[in-house]
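Could you join me in thinking about how sequence relates to backbone shape in a protein? We need material for that, and I hope you will provide a protein of your own picking. Once you have written the record down, we can walk along the chain together:

…
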Amino acid sequence: MSEHSSVETPRTEAPRLRAIPGGRDERPRRTDSEIRPMAPVQTRPRTELLWREALGRRLRILRREQGETLAETAERAGVSPQYLSEVERGLKEPSSEMVAAMAGALGTPLGGLVHQVADDLVRHSRIAAPRAIGPRTHAPYNGLLLAA
């Protein structure tokens, strides 16, 4: 067997990078007194409950009534516990297929869940804005409300 001799190759130094003309290194740094604070973002208080928020609240109520954890319900629905948590907190707007899967995992018919969410939305709108546009009746809501 012949020994392999290692031949040392001469190392060449990589070329030094230069700053781009007008780039960060060439601009004078501003002092704190020169930096203007950002104006606060003006947000209008929202009193109307969104569909995804009402859905999430209703799903959480149903899950807790059954004494289930996020992981148990999420596994049966075929979603991750993180996703179900985001839906329950009103951060994600699930597709109709996902809503059906979550309703099924909780043993609730999809129509029943949608009806409960619609009732929650109507109840909240009456509390938040008693002069809301709509039928001027004090009868309970008997229709089906769908979100686009």
About this structure: The mean pLDDT is 79. DSSP finds five helices and no strands in the chain. The longest helix spans residues 110-128.
